[in-house]
Amino acid sequence: MPAQARIARQITTSGQVDLIAGSHAHVLQKIAQVNGTWVLFGLGNHLSTQNSLTIGRSSTADGVIARVRFTERPDGRFEVSRPTVIPTWVHHRKYVVMDVFKHLDDPSLPPDILRNLRASWRRTS
After folding, report:
1. Residues forming beta bridges with residue 34, ordered by sequence position
2. In the Cβ-directed half-sphere of 39, how many Cα atoms lie within 13 Å?
3. Number of H helices, E strands in the chain
4. Which of 27, 55, 106, 122 has its CA 20 to 30 Å from the CA of residue 100?
5. 80: left (phi over 0), alpha (psi -120 to 50) or beta
6. Percent helix, percent strand, percent coil in the chain, to nearest 5
């Protein structure tokens, strides 16, 4: 993470970058402003068979879908809103990305899936 932070500082110093969205870390990482620019360091997994059974880490099933709004200013530059996130969890046996909030208390889901969603929410929040 220190290397990512250093690179984000270097990239955002120019003021020419509106947003940095990181990926491939396979785990959820922080969202922060660097030199006034929002940086999504790592959005986690969105569709992967990495999980506690395959690599021993439950957090690799966690992710977020980030939403930002770009508003063009009169000078042609863009203003980027504070990112909001939708926490997700990958159901690795079915290859389905589940919206954690939407399914957190869904009584139709099996108990093991509900346990995984709640655990994902605790890790994500």
Report:
1. 37
2. 21
3. 3, 8
4. 55
5. beta
6. 25, 30, 45
Which residue type, as a one-letter code, is found at position 121?
A: W
- Side chain identity, residue 111: P
Give the Cα-Cα-Cα angle 65, 35, 38 (nearest 5 degrees): 10
List pLDDT tens digits, range 81-106.
999 999 999 887 777 899 999 999 89
Q: Are 1 and 29 in contact (CB under 8 A)?
A: yes
Question: Rounded to an integer, what distance in angstroms lies between the CA atom of residue 111 and that of residue 4?
Answer: 38
Q: Which amino acid is at 105?
A: D
Give CA–CA dist 58/117, Å, rounded: 11
Contact yes or no for 98/89 (Cβ under 8 A): yes
| DSSP-derived 3-state class of residue 66 | strand
Average the pLDDT over 106-120 and give the result.
94
